[in-house]
Inverse folding.
């Protein structure tokens, strides 16, 4: 398996300046390569590929020894590959009829990651005679101290240096990470994602869910709304280019990053509890991007240039709650943890899972009276709607698994 390990960096002041200069030089290389591609197409309809731009690196480094020449050659290749992937993704979306998203120039503060190759641009734990701390040796900067709070498994392939606000991180991507299978429990559960509750499990898990199987929704962004609103009001009154505006922007970023860290932490703890509890975990195959789209405007046929109410305000609130729950982060973390633990995760179509009776199988939208209440119009079976959905998800996943096995 391939896994990534992220640790905080503890650079000195001089190392921070050097790391920031490295990011700026790689950003300049990215922007220059993007401009070359744009101009070549505009002037002569010629598409420049990664190989052609990579072949120019030697001349660029020779012409600018104090700038581009002081950084790792392979790291600069990784930056050019990053641009190439952006173009490939743009063309892929264009062929699929989606919004292309043409690659943009990176301004200051919008290019915060540099990828280095282990053994060439960087070397992990380069000073073994310091047993109390780990180090990463970065080409052109030297040994930077790492706060390694857990051991690394596998073989380090690439090392990323990342800046988040005023903090620096190192991300080690490792190959051949051994699995750590957990003992079998014999349990199988279905998980229904929600907004009122973060998720509902088909059977209660001690210490994680309540008696009905509900996992409470933490709503981290909603709890930080007052702080965000205050900082945004201050930001709106600042002048462009002022120190006050810069400091307020840093404060806003700090609040958002704290919310993201808390959401990720919750996803890891919840996923770990599920993986420890059950051998088979069935989840919904959600299309979160489609679920959080804004409704289309409705034109008024009687009055040109005017629009009818389309429920955009209510949908905006629902979209905010869905994104605040962090379903995508949780499902991704769950899949990774299940793979490491030797568990099975099955994704099923969520269609009608909350409208199907768990007793007689009758499907009707009238079965769900309210958000929480389920009353089957055929057999009068009553239960919590989310619990019914989790049971139906579990059953659909087991049927799908047996069908694949056959």
């Amino acid at each position: 398996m391939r896994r990534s390990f992220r640790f905080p960096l503890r650079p000195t002041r001089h190392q921070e300046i050097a790391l920031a200069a490295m990011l700026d030089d790689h950003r300049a290389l990215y922007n220059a390569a993007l401009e070359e591609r744009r101009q070549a197409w505009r002037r002569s309809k010629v598409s420049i590929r990664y190989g052609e731009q990579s072949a120019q690196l030697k001349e660029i480094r020779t012409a600018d020894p104090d700038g581009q020449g002081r950084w790792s050659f392979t790291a600069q290749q990784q930056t050019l590959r990053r641009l190439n992937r952006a173009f490939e993704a743009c063309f892929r979306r264009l062929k699929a009829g989606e919004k292309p998203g043409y690659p943009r120039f990176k301004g200051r503060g919008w290019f915060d990651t540099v990828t280095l190759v282990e053994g060439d641009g960087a070397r992990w734990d380069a000073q073994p005679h310091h047993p109390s701390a780990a180090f990463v040796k970065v080409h052109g900067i030297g040994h930077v101290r790492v706060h390694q709070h857990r051991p690394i498994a596998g073989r380090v392939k690439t090392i990323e240096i990342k800046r988040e606000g005023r903090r620096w991180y190192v991300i080690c991507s490792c190959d051949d990470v051994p699995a750590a299978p957990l003992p079998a429990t014999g349990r199988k559960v279905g998980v229904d994602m929600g907004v009122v509750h973060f998720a509902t499990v088909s059977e209660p898990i001690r210490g994680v869910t309540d008696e009905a199987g509900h996992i409470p929704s933490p709503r981290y962004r909603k709890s930080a709304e007052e702080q965000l609103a205050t900082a945004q009001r201050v930001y709106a009154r600042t002048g462009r280019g002022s120190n006050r505006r810069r400091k307020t922007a840093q404060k806003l970023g700090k609040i958002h990053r704290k919310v993201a860290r808390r959401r990720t932490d919750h996803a890891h703890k919840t996923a770990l509890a599920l993986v420890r509890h059950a051998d088979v975990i069935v989840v919904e195959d959600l299309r979160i991007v489609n679920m959080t789209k804004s409704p289309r405007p409705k034109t008024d046929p009687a009055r040109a240039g005017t629009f009818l109410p389309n429920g955009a305000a209510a949908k905006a609130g629902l979209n905010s709650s869905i994104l605040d729950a962090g379903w995508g982060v949780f499902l991704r973390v769950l899949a990774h943890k299940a793979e490491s633990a030797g568990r099975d995760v099955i994704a099923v179509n969520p269609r009608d899972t909350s409208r199907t009776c768990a007793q007689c199988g009758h499907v009707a939208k009238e079965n769900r009276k309210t958000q929480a209440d389920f009353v089957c119009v055929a057999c009068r079976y009553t239960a919590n709607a989310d619990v019914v959905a989790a049971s139906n998800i579990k059953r659909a996943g087991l049927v799908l698994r047996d069908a694949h096995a056959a």
Observations:
- The chain has a mean pLDDT of 92.
